[in-house]
UniProtKB/TrEMBL annotation:
Job of this protein: Bifunctional enzyme that catalyzes the epimerization of the S- and R-forms of NAD(P)HX and the dehydration of the S-form of NAD(P)HX at the expense of ADP, which is converted to AMP. This allows the repair of both epimers of NAD(P)HX, a damaged form of NAD(P)H that is a result of enzymatic or heat-dependent hydration.
Keyword Iron: no
Region described as Disordered: spans on this chain: 304-335
Biological classification of the source: Bacteria, Bacillati, Actinomycetota, Actinomycetes, Micrococcales
Keywords: ATP-binding, Isomerase, Lyase, Metal-binding, Multifunctional enzyme, NAD, NADP, Nucleotide-binding, Potassium
Similarity comment: family membership: In the C-terminal section; belongs to the NnrD/CARKD family. Belongs to the NnrD/CARKD family.
Chain sites annotated for binding (6S)-NADPHX: 62-66, 184, 283, 366, 414, 491
Protein name: Bifunctional NAD(P)H-hydrate repair enzyme
Gene name tied to this protein: nnrD
Organism the protein comes from: Cellulomonas marina
Catalytic activity: (6R)-NADPHX = (6S)-NADPHX; (6S)-NADHX + ADP = AMP + phosphate + NADH + H(+); (6R)-NADHX = (6S)-NADHX; (6S)-NADPHX + ADP = AMP + phosphate + NADPH + H(+)
Length: 569
């Protein structure tokens, strides 16, 4: 599991060690240079560090200090290192080490009484990189982004730092682009909230010290961090202080409900499904397929009824009451259930939400809010959820969600749906109702807000899926390819979430915080199933569902879980 702590927690953990004189910066810089060596060997044709051209962008704080010290170590290994000083001051120790190691220093920065380096730019402000800097960047094999770390004021880079970021070649049109390594965090990104204000240099790798910071896992900033490499510099972080987590395969294997030798289908969990309509049967097929293939004990699919069916059922019931004969005759499957059964013959069809027991519900995928009969079934599921039955509520169920649900209920909106839900509840930003752009700019903020308002666990779908559950616990999963943004993908995810809620229903009722971890686990498996279905290529939602058994089997085998066991606590 990857865990991110807030910058305040990291600073608090650093403080006593710094006071005791522990060489934290040396440790950070050494690990940083080791990662750079690895990358240079991997990316350079010559496969070595000697002769590699490295540019260090160094701000005036300790982040710049880390970068300068690493630059010094690289210079001592034969790299041609140029440091560009971007702040009004420079980290004295880092600068001294860099100069002593033969690093070429560019910048007008006063250190003590001395002015070092060459003028950066031709303008009076010094806010434009000059030709020496531009040449160095144009020819760089690798750029170290040490402009600012957790000391960022979060308002976006300013001055020369901003201009330097803009001057790094982007490789557009097939041109040269250096490998970019962010020091601790991509400079200027929202360290604690994942916001991106202004330009941030997109990193291939972020080497982060002590612990990952939340912004490395939270979109949109997480999309600029590349591969996150955490480095242990000896900090002890508070056990309960994790701000954001990311599940890995072993965590999911430990959560997955696996039948024991004596398990039977009812005990393993029955999922009730109210997804799809006769007009749009696909969501019903996809959600039930996903639930079955994710390994739920049984799926009870609630067939669609129209007004006429409901009238006939009422009349039948009245006649039975008159005859004092309570048993309802089995009713033939309608066109929706027929489509579902054609795809998944193991599904049991129910005539209504109350027919037969279930441990959890999945409802709303592919349900048109304008369809009154299907909406009544969805509303019945929402009522059951309100009474404590774990449920995943998707798409056409979301507008029926009001406040006061518990975290045992998982809502699965995408950004547009979440924006609409929030705007309908009067949420505004900058004086206007929350819209999709606002949610995409601050997905964590709005997912947390939806959790606060509804009480439910909120899974916000996206390239990075965020899950906010009981107590604000947050999970960030980025496991799927971009191809997964395809029609029906959300229906499959709802089925997987539902399967997990049904399989672990008792545990979820006892500890609703578990729902967020299960939803995050579902997102991981869903993403991996897309990779598995078509590595590197387009994928259909049904193919994702079909890949689920193999992905689950891989997880359980590779991550050391026993082949047969009962549900873990
Ligand atoms: N302390 C240690 O031994 C260790 C620290 N580590 C690294 O330290 C940074 C945090 O360092 P800190 O000095 O607290 O702050 P930063 O370097 O991140 O930032 C301060 C400088 O950044 C400038 N700044 C701030 N905001 C902006 C902005 N929007 N645009 C441009 N520049 C900005 C600020 O300039 P001022 O003009 O405001 O002074 C400072 O120059 C941490 O991230 C680690 O990398 C290691 O973990 C090892 C141990
Ligand atoms: K940085």
């Amino acid at each position: 599991m990857l865990r991110a702590w807030s910058s305040a927690d990291v600073r608090a953990a650093e403080a006593p060690l710094l006071a005791a004189g522990e060489p934290l910066m040396d440790r950070a810089a050494f690990a940083l240079h080791v990662e750079v060596v690895r990358l240079l060997r991997a990316h350079r044709r010559e496969r070595r560090v000697h002769g590699a051209r490295v540019v260090v962008l160094a701000g005036g704080g300790a982040n710049g200090g880390d970068a300068l010290h690493a630059g010094a170590l690289l210079a001592r290994r034969g790299a041609a290192v140029t440091a560009v000083l971007a702040g009004e001051r420079a980290h004295a120790g880092g600068l001294a080490a860099a100069r002593a190691a033969g690093v070429r220093v560019l910048g007008d920065v006063a250190v003590g009484d001395a002015v070092v380096g060459d003028a950066v730019g031709p303008d009076d402000e010094g806010d434009e990189p000059g030709p020496l800097v531009c040449d160095a960047l144009a020819g760089a094999d690798l750029v170290l982004d040490g402009l600012v770390g957790i000391g960022s004021d979060g308002s976006g880079l300013r001055g020369l730092a901003r201009a330097l970021v803009a001057a790094v070649p982007t490789g557009t049109g097939g041109g040269h682009r250096p490998v970019v390594v962010a020091v601790d965090v991509p400079s200027g990104s929202g360290v604690d909230d994942g916001r991106v204000a202004g330009d941030v240099l997109r990193a291939d790798v972020t080497v982060t010290f002590g612990a990952p910071k939340p912004g490395l896992l939270l979109p949109p900033a997480s999309g600029l961090a590349g591969q996150v490499v955490p480095v242990d510099i000896g900090l002890t972080l508070p056990a309960g202080g994790v701000a954001v987590g990311r599940l890995e395969g072993a965590d999911v294997a430990a959560l997955w409900p696996v039948p024991g030798a004596t398990s039977q289908k009812y005990a393993r969990g029955v999922l009730g499904v109210v997804c799809g309509t006769t007009r749009y049967p696909g969501a019903g097929v996809l959600a039930t397929s996903a639930a079955v293939l994710a390994g739920v004990g049984m799926v009870r699919f609630v067939d669609e009824r129209d007004e006429r069916d409901e009238r006939d059922e009422r009349d039948e019931r009245d006649e039975r009451d008159e005859r004092e004969d309570p048993a309802a005759p089995p009713r033939p499957a309608g066109p929706l259930a027929t489509a579902v059964l054609a795809a998944r013959p193991e599904v049991v069809v129910a005539g209504a939400v109350g027919d037969g027991r279930v441990q959890a519900w999945a409802a709303g995928s592919g349900v048109d809010p304008a369809d009154p009969a299907r909406r009544r079934d969805v509303a019945a599921v929402v009522a059951a959820a309100r009474d404590g039955v774990p449920a995943v509520l998707d798409a056409g169920a979301l507008d029926l969600v009001t406040e006061g649900l518990g975290a045992h209920v998982v809502l699965t909106p995408h950004a547009g749906e979440l924006a609409r839900w929030l705007a309908d509840r009067g949420e505004r930003v900058g004086g206007v109702p929350v819209d999709r752009d606002a949610v995409e700019a601050e997905p964590w903020r709005w997912a947390r807000r939806a959790h606060d308002l509804s009480g439910a666990t909120v899974l916000l779908k996206g390239a990075t899926t965020l899950v906010v559950g009981a107590g604000g616990s947050t999970w960030s999963q980025a496991d799927g390819p971009a191809w997964l943004a395809t029609a029906g993908s959300g229906d499959v995810l709802a089925g997987v979430v539902g399967a997990l809620l049904a399989g672990r229903a008792e545990d979820v009722v006892a500890d609703p915080a578990l729902a967020a971890r299960l939803a995050a686990a579902a997102a991981l498996v869903h993403g991996r199933a897309a990779h598995h279905a078509t590595p590197g290529g387009p994928v259909s939602a049904l193919a994702v569902a079909h890949a689920l058994p193999a992905v689950v089997a891989d997880l359980l085998a590779q991550d050391g879980a026993p082949a047969v066991r009962d549900c873990p606590a």
